């Protein structure tokens, strides 16, 4: 069963779909749909990823100041939730991690793991992260999130983002091991 991807995304963005995703994600999806097939509908099944000549090529940022990071696992999609990732990037920038650049230049987009748009976005977006809290339930929650990502066709490579000060040993290294061993997901851990 095929469907008109661009029309479906426009319908979802206009609020006529029943999915409950934040407006900034909807706007981004509509923009991405227009970049994939400007003026032409793209037909594919909901579970089939978008591919070009066997190689998935995510859209390139329009400028160095336009970097999008899709984040899974945040408690919500409001700016107060995404600000936690910006705080971590600011911490990393202060530590001298030049790849971060200007932490405020990153467009942080929180996406619920159960979003029906996860497989589509996984094929289109190149920068993904998994938010990992530092509480007592963090490992169990992280394991479940990794499992959901794998089951729903989510990204196969993510950067671990977490509250500043969380060390590599223990929680993060254990989740990195589980991600690779059980789910075939590369979880990049940058904590020291």
Short précis:
This protein has 192 residues and is of the alpha/beta class.
The secondary structure category is alpha/beta
Number of strands: 7
Report the C-alpha radius of gyration, rounded.
17 Å
CATH architecture type of the largest domain: 3-Layer(aba) Sandwich
**Order of strands in the sheet with most strands:** 4-3-5-6-7
Please, what is the average pLDDT?
77
For the record, the CATH class of the largest domain is Alpha Beta
Question: Total number of helical segments?
Answer: 6
Could you tell me the strand content as a percent range? 5-15%
Q: How many structural domains in the coordinates? A: 2
Reading the helices and strands in chain order gives EHHEEHEHEHEHE
- Sheet bearing the most strands, described? 5 strands, parallel
Global geometry: globular
Task: Report the helical percentage.
Answer: 25-40%
- Which regions have little confidence, pLDDT < 50, spanning 5+ residues? 1-6, 40-63
Q: Give the CA-CA distance, first to last residue.
A: 48 Å
- Write down the CATH topology of the largest domain: Rossmann fold
């Amino acid at each position: 069963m095929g469907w008109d991807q661009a029309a479906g995304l426009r319908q979802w963005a206009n609020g006529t779909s029943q999915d409950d995703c934040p407006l900034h994600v909807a706007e981004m999806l509509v923009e991405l749909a227009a970049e994939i097939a400007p003026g032409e509908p793209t037909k594919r099944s909901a579970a089939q990823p978008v591919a070009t000549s066997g190689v998935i090529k995510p859209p390139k940022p329009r400028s160095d100041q336009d970097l999008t990071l899709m984040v899974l696992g945040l408690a919500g999609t409001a700016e107060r939730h995404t600000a936690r990732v910006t705080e971590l990037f600011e911490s990393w920038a202060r530590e001298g991690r030049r790849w971060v650049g200007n932490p405020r230049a990153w467009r942080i987009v929180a996406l619920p793991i159960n979003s029906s748009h996860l497989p589509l976005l996984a094929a289109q977006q190149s920068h993904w992260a998994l938010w990992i809290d530092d509480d007592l339930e963090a490992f169990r929650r992280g394991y479940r999130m990794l499992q959901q990502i794998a089951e729903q066709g989510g990204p196969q490579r993510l950067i671990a983002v977490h509250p500043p000060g969380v060390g590599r040993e223990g929680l993060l290294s254990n989740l990195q091991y589980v991600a690779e061993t059980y789910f075939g997901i590369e979880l990049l851990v940058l904590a020291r």
